[in-house]
Amino acid sequence: MESLKNKIVFITGATSGIGKACAEEFARAGSNLILCARRPDLLNSISEGLRTEFGVKVFSFELDVRDRKAVESAVASFPEEWKAIDILVNNAGLAKGMSKFYEDDPDNWEEMIDTNVKGLLYVSHAVVPLMVKRNSGHIINLGSIAGHEPYPKGSVYCASKHAVDAITKSLRMDLVETNIRVSSIDPGMVETNFSVIRFGGDEEKAKNVYRGLEPLTGKDIAETILFMASRPAHVVIADVVIFPTHQASATISYKKV
């Protein structure tokens, strides 16, 4: 097991769900954190809490990963001590809407593609050269079971996560001559605010997704990411598909009534 103490870990979308859980788990392991998100007040509060509780350094800033110029400018302006990024967790992502393709809102498509695909590309493109320069680093992308299995009423979300899978695999090939590792983690049902956002803030609809089944939590995913990141330098866990016990595929689960 490789120690994560004093490693620099950059996490996008760090104010809720899996991103926030990752920040907490890496801080608990003694890592120093670069955190970004779109909600600065919440981000500042979380950052201060992590500094106080775990005694780690936290560099945080407001960022919308959909804005390529903002991403490039932010990473280029990192203080030198923060440019030695050891681990990048590309967590920022979302689902919007769940309708048949021909009834769907194209505005939702734009937001999902811009965040899930372009955002991941922009951040990775800004950070990977810093890792290449040092010949060291680990990129961990948040995929989804939707990147392995498309399902009804999720065509564009599924397409965006298939893109994450393809980008991850191609990037690993591009970096195979280096010491940089590239991984993805592809969860099934995780109870965060994911479904609330997908259903436009309808909390009852979101609860129905998980009712009768104990879903995964953000902490479950974060602990798995921590395990992936702490493997010895010669080991890369290329991909993890992770379900709650009573889920068997993107569309098959058992729910008690």
Describe this structure in words.
The chain has helices at 17-28, 40-54, 68-76, 106-134, 155-174, 194-198, 203-210, 218-229, and strands spanning 8-12, 32-37, 58-62, 87-90, 137-142, 180-187, 239-242. The protein is α/β, with parallel strands linked by helices. It is built from eight helices and seven strands; from the N terminus they run E-H-E-H-E-H-E-H-E-H-E-H-H-H-E. Helices cover 43% and strands 15% of the residues. The longest helix has 29 residues, at 106-134. It has a seven-stranded parallel sheet with strand order 3-2-1-4-5-6-7, sandwiched between helices. The protein has a single domain (8-242), classed as Rossmann fold.
User: Mean pLDDT score, rounded?
Assistant: 97
Class per helix and strand makeup? alpha/beta
Name the overall outline.
globular
> How much of the sequence is in beta strands?
5-15%
Largest sheet: 7 strands, parallel
Going by CATH, the architecture would be 3-Layer(aba) Sandwich
Annotate the secondary structure layout.
Layout: E1 8-12, H1 17-28, E2 32-37, H2 40-54, E3 58-62, H3 68-76, E4 87-90, H4 106-134, E5 137-142, H5 155-174, E6 180-187, H6 194-198, H7 203-210, H8 218-229, E7 239-242
Parallel strand pairs: 1-2, 1-4, 2-3, 4-5, 5-6, 6-7
Helix pairs in contact: 1-2, 1-8, 3-4, 4-5
List the defining traits of the structure above.
alpha/beta, Rossmann fold
Could you give a short description of this structure?
The chain has 257 residues and is α/β, with parallel strands linked by helices. The protein is built from eight helices and seven strands.
